[in-house]
Structure to design on (105 residues):
């Protein structure tokens, strides 16, 4: 790049691909049909309203984000706790491994 010359033009990156946007639209429809408009957190003992739709089997592990069997409504606090992959989450099915149950680790 020459000094004082015009800056090269760059195209902005899309926030999401068209495929991902379509998946997210489908996911919202399925979640609404499955859990309704005011879902309660799926963690036993928690009675807060759900903020997030969690996938027990993540996309990286082969899960589908549009499968109602792979969705669980969670409040933000409970969803944040799952980042540490606690054993209780595997025990009640809120986290799953792609190769089977958590006992096979």
């Amino acid at each position: 790049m020459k000094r004082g010359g015009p800056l090269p033009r760059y195209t902005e990156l899309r926030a999401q691909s068209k495929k991902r946007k379509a998946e997210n639209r489908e996911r919202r429809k399925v979640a609404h049909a499955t859990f309704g408009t005011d879902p309660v957190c799926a963690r036993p003992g928690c009675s807060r309203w759900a903020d997030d739709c969690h996938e027990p089997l993540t996309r990286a592990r082969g899960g589908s984000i549009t499968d109602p069997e792979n969705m669980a409504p969670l409040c933000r606090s409970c969803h944040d706790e799952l980042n540490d992959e606690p054993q209780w989450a595997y025990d009640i099915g809120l986290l799953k491994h792609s190769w089977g149950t958590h006992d096979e680790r």
